[in-house]
């Protein structure tokens, strides 16, 4: 059967949003993500903000037009805000199999991390590379979003073996896998069932199940905030009571959640004469940075490090 190919170019920020919006409409196995091809572009196009091209496929049958219109409507807000191009459509006999698909998208982050598609063939180029394999999923955390990139760079800097770490808002599980591969033990929490499934898949796929415990739930008052991404109301989600348990907490989530959980962060980190707990916050842009820093410093945190990419910010704090 012929296929209807829908394609669009996106910024780094838009990839996770596109996958999340499409999740209830299309099989994620029918979604391809490739680097934006800058060859043969005009002088005007070469300065375009696009980083990736997403292709998705639906059967070209009597329902194709309805499916296409639904997808266009779902993604229209991203196009209006300049995060994606308009969708282009083409009738094809098979899925795209160009060089950028047969040769896997290799996304290098920091000094050691390499993010790959789940089934990509890849030969390591250095003995200390940390390979992170991810299935395309509607959960946030493709490894392509600036907030994820910044967080991984900071984890590479601060995770040491034997740490006990909380990954709050685990999404796709990319951060939990990275932390485990750096030698730490992880509790992965998310209040969304799709994210929990995605994290479990990533943990199994990357062979770190012995180091990562995955739970649908939240920390402290987080369960009272509803679905963090604005989804359906959540019921009966586990609540992890704050205790001085963790050496490091990483949370790549919305700004309002960081502010609401400030006290729970403090109460959950180990703090002794010889050890001060660390907190990594990400998932927000510079316009919310001051609000978050103020909320955290007022209860005893100090900023000790940061990473920035365009308007996105990730910060490291030490409990004083």
How would you explain this protein's 3D organization?
- The protein is of the alpha/beta class and 320 residues long.
- The protein folds into 2 domains: 98 residues, Alpha-Beta Plaits (2-Layer Sandwich), CATH 3.30.70.120; 183 residues, 3-Layer(aba) Sandwich (Rossmann fold).
- The strands form 3 sheets. The chain has an 8-stranded mixed sheet, sandwiched between helices. A 4-stranded antiparallel sheet has the order 2-3-1-4.
- The radius of gyration is 20 Å and the shape is globular.
- About 2% of the residues have low confidence.
- Keywords: Methyltransferase, Ribonucleoprotein, Ribosomal protein, Transferase.
- InterPro entries: Ribosomal_L11_MeTrfase_PrmA, SAM-dependent_MTases_sf.
- It comes from Dendronalium phyllosphericum CENA369.
Terminal CA distance: 63 Å
CA gyration radius, whole angstroms: 20 Å
Classify the helix fraction into a percent range: 25-40%
Number of helices: 9
Largest sheet: 8 strands, mixed
Give me the strand/helix succession: EHEEHEHEEEHEHEHEEEHHEHEE
The oligomeric state is single chain
Low-confidence stretches: 99-103
What is the CATH class of the largest domain? Alpha Beta
Name given to the CATH architecture of the largest domain:
3-Layer(aba) Sandwich
Strand order of the largest sheet: 11-10-9-8-12-13-15-14
CATH superfamily of the largest domain: Vaccinia Virus protein VP39
Can you describe this structure in just a few lines?
With 320 residues, the protein is an alpha/beta fold. It has nine helices and 15 strands.
């Amino acid at each position: 059967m012929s296929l209807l190919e829908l394609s669009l170019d996106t910024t780094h920020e838009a990839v996770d949003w596109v996958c999340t919006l499409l999740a209830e409409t299309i099989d994620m196995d029918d979604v391809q993500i490739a680097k934006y091809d800058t060859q043969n572009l005009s002088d005007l196009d070469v300065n375009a903000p696009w980083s990736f091209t997403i292709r998705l496929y639906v059967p070209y049958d009597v329902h194709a037009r309805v499916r296409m219109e639904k997808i266009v409507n779902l993604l229209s807000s991203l196009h209006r805000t300049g995060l994606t191009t308009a969708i282009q459509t083409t009738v094809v006999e098979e899925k795209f199999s160009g060089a950028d698909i047969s040769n896997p998208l290799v996304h290098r982050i920091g000094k050691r991390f390499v993010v790959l598609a789940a089934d990509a063939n890849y030969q390591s180029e250095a003995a200390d590379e940390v390979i992170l394999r991810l299935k395309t999923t509607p959960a946030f955390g493709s490894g392509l979003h600036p907030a994820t990139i910044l967080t991984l760079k900071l984890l590479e800097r601060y995770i040491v073996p034997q740490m006990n770490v909380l990954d709050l808002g685990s999404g796709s599980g990319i951060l939990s896998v990275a932390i485990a591969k750096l030698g730490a033990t992880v509790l992965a929490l998310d209040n969304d069932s799709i994210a929990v499934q995605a994290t479990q898949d990533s943990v199994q796929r990357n062979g770190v199940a012995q180091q990562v415990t995955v739970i649908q739930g939240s920390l402290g008052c987080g369960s009272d905030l509803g679905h963090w991404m604005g989804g359906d109301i959540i019921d009966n989600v586990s609540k992890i009571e704050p205790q001085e348990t963790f050496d490091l907490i990483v949370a790549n989530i919305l700004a309002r959640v960081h502010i609401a959980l400030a006290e729970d962060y403090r109460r959950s980190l180990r703090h002794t004469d010889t050890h001060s707990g660390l907190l990594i916050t990400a998932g927000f842009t510079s316009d919310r940075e001051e609000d978050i820093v103020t909320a955290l410093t007022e209860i005893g945190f100090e900023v000790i490090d940061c990473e920035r990419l365009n308007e996105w910010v990730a910060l490291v704090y030490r409990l004083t």
